[in-house]
């Protein structure tokens, strides 16, 4: 697990309406910041280093990195807002 | 939840590779747990569902007609520049219903005596203590946790493959050596009901391909696309597949969308540890040219079970002993995969004109109407067109594994 200082002005956002639960991103993440619980993908914001690999990988474009921290996305395994991804 | 607290072997993931490994080990008398985190084995499907010949499959198991959708009699490959290569040959492969197929193999494992636990998620693996590894097991619906012990752990958890990372193996997908793939299940009839149809090259997608696979029994086609991890901002696979769907089957209903990661890096450099081994997609046993992983995953599972059996009998399940399993996989299919990976890199590196020349030669070879001088002239033309890229391609082709 890379422990580098966290850049506080970014958030990895998952658009749950678009996500097809393929779990492909889980294996691509270098920091184990993504995991699949049943058919629910969880994003662990505190582990994410914003390397964009999962964003590139996602076959439906459900993941994106936005600037700023939406209030709902704070804390571990928080549900990311669905509307923020484009 | 698992009935016992100690097992000889715990297999993580009830896909074809894991189930086959569990079946073989259970049949040899070991106490085996087959843990699957999803509620139903095989669902949702994350696969194009085409695989090798019936005769090949029957080497590993009794082929059950229930899960066979279509017998395949040929391949149509649409390359750039309007070149279409058609290859007809009886019995080149099968289309499966992966849901039923996975369930069938898991049932075989159960029949052989393995304990199958669905809804069972493994959350961590401890280092070896007194010849055992401890696993944290979570029952998904109740979130109840427990600890079980196993003399040997097999990670067959597919492309997600977190189990390898828990024991310190480098199993992460390194872009671009992983395919981002999507598949649309479309309620339509394939105009070529016994052929696999592919689109590859600059006119469709260069670093991957678009496919249409017929599933006759269910009356659907699998239309999908996959490509080496795209760069940021490039078109994603879903949009590409939808484009093809609109073009090929404009009025047909979309039944299902699924996708996933296809590891196309060739066999991992290292996928065993003390009392731990990976097999199937988790060990990147996938064919890097076609992305097909069912048959090589099954073979990987078979070899894995043999070496684990040998390890138990010899009382040695150390990393150095299990390394022989890696070597065995390399000899049986890894080498071939490495070779096919070079062909893939060669074709996708070619510039457009050279790629068209390549497909022209390929078509001539498949059709059998290419004379030797024409073949030589074709190669010369292709290499001439490849120009500067040739040096890079050559380097990629001859690079050591």
- Annotated CATH homologous superfamily of the largest domain in chain B: FAD/NAD(P)-binding domain
Sum up the overall morphology of chain A in one term: globular
E-strand count of chain B? 16
Contiguous uncertain segments of 5+ residues of chain A: 73-86
Q: Biggest interface pair, residues each?
A: A-B, 26 and 35 residues
Percent strand of chain A: 15-25%
The termini of chain A sit apart by 29 Å
Order of helices and strands of chain A: EHEEHE
Return the domain count of chain B.
3
The average pLDDT value of chain A, as a whole number, equals 78
Structural class of chain B: alpha/beta
Q: What percentage of the residues of chain B does DSSP assign to strands (E)? A: 25-35%
CATH domain class of the largest domain in chain B: Alpha Beta
**Low-confidence residue ranges of chain B:** none
Q: Please work out how many helical segments of chain B DSSP would assign.
A: 10
CATH class of chain A: Alpha Beta
Per DSSP E runs of 2 or more residues, the count of β-strands of chain A stands at 4
Based on secondary structure, the structural category of chain A is alpha+beta
What would you report as the Rg of chain B, rounded to the nearest angstrom? 22 Å
Describe the fold and architecture.
The complex is a heterodimer of chains A (86) and B (401). Chain A has 86 residues and is of the alpha+beta class. Chain A has one domain: Alpha-Beta Plaits. Chain A is built from 2 helices and 4 strands, in the order βαββαβ. In chain A, the strands form 2 sheets. A two-stranded antiparallel sheet of chain A has the order 1-4. In chain A, a hairpin with a 2-residue loop joins β2 (34-37) and β3. The termini of chain A are far apart. The model of chain A is unreliable at 73-86 (pLDDT under 50). With 401 residues, chain B is an alpha/beta fold. Chain B folds into 3 domains: 6-47 and 99-173 and 265-341, FAD/NAD(P)-binding domain (3-Layer(bba) Sandwich); 73-95 and 175-263, D-Amino Acid Oxidase, subunit A, domain 2 (D-Amino Acid Oxidase, Chain A, domain 2, 2-Layer Sandwich), CATH 3.30.9; 350-398, no CATH class. In chain B, 35% of the residues lie in helices and 28% in strands. Chain B has helices spanning 16-27, 54-57, 98-111, 162-166, 237-248, 294-314, 319-349, 352-367, 372-386, 389-398; strands at residues 6-12, 32-35, 50-51, 68-78, 84-96, 115-117, 120-125, 133-139, 144-155, 178-187, 195-200, 208-215, 220-228, 253-263, 272-273, 276-278. In chain B, strands 1, 2, 6, 7, 8, 9, 15 and 16 form an 8-stranded mixed β-sheet that branches. An 8-stranded mixed β-sheet of chain B has the order 3-5-4-11-12-13-10-14. The two termini of chain B are 42 Å apart. Chain A binds chain B through residues 20-30, 32, 35-39, 52-53, 55-61, and chain B through 37-39, 44, 46, 121, 140, 159-162, 165, 171-173, 175, 178, 180-182, 226, 229-232, 236-239, 257-261, 263.
């Amino acid at each position: 697990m890379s422990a580098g200082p966290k850049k506080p002005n970014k958030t990895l956002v998952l658009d749950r309406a678009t996500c097809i639960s393929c779990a492909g991103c889980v294996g691509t993440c270098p920091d184990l910041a993504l995991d699949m619980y049943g058919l629910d993908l969880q994003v662990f914001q505190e582990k994410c280093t914003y390397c964009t690999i999962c964003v590139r990988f996602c076959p439906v474009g459900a993941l994106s990195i936005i600037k700023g921290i939406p209030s709902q996305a704070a804390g571990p395994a928080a549900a990311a807002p669905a509307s923020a991804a484009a | 939840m698992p009935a016992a607290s100690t097992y000889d072997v715990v297999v993580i993931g009830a896909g074809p590779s894991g189930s086959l490994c569990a079946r073989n080990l259970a049949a040899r008398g070991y106490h085996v747990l087959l843990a699957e985190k999803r509620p139903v084995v095989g669902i949702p499907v994350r696969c194009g569902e085409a695989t090798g010949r019936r005769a090949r499959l029957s080497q590993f198991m009794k082929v059950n007609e229930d899960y066979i959708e279509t017998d395949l009699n040929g391949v149509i490959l649409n390359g750039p520049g309007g070149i279409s290569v058609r290859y007809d040959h009886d019995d080149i492969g099968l289309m499966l219903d992966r849901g039923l197929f996975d369930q069938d193999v898991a049932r075989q494992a159960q029949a052989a005596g393995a304990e199958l636990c669905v809804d069972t998620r493994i959350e961590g693996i401890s280092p070896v203590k007194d010849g055992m590894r401890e696993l944290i097991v979570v029952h998904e619906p109740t979130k109840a946790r427990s600890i079980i012990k196993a003399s040997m752990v097999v990670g067959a958890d597919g492309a997600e493959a977190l189990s390898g990372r828990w024991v310190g193996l480098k199993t992460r997908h390194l872009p671009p050596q992983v395919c981002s793939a999507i598949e649309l299940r479309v309620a339509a009839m394939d105009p070529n009901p016994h052929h696999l149809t592919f689109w590859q090259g600059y006119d469709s997608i260069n670093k991957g391909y678009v496919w249409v696979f017929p599933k006759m029994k269910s009356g659907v086609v699998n239309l999908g696309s996959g490509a080496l991890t795209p760069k940021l901002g490039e078109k994603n696979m879903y949009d590409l597949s939808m484009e093809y769907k609109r073009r090929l089957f404009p009025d047909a209903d979309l039944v299902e969308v699924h996708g996933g990661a296809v590891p196309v890096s060739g066999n991992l450099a290292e996928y065993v540890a003390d009392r731990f081994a990976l097999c199937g997609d988790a060990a990147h046993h996938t064919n890097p040219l076609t992305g097909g992983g069912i048959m090589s995953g099954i073979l990987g599972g078979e070899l894995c079970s043999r070496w684990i059996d040998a390890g138990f009998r010899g009382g040695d399940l150390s990393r150095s002993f299990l390394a022989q399993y890696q070597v065995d996989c390399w000899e049986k299919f890894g080498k071939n995969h490495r070779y096919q990976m070079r062909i893939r890199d060669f074709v996708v590196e070619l510039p457009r004109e050279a790629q068209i020349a390549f497909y022209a030669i390929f078509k001539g070879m498949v059709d059998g109407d290419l004379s030797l001088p024409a073949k030589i002239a074709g190669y010369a033309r292709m290499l001439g067109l490849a120009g500067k890229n040739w040096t890079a391609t050559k380097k990629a082709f001859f690079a050591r594994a």
